[in-house]
Amino acid sequence: MDTSQDSVPRRCLVIVDMSVEQVADLSYKKDQVIQNCRALSTSSYFHLVVDSRLWLDSPEESSLSWVWPEAGTTLFKKNSQGAALIPQLSDLDHVLFLPKNNYSCFCKSPLHDTLTAQKIQHVYICGINTDYCVFATALDYFSATFPTFVVREAVSSVR
Question: Which residues lie closer than 8 Å to 105 by C-beta, 6 or more apart?
Answer without folding.
Answer: 14, 16, 50, 52, 98, 111, 133, 137, 140
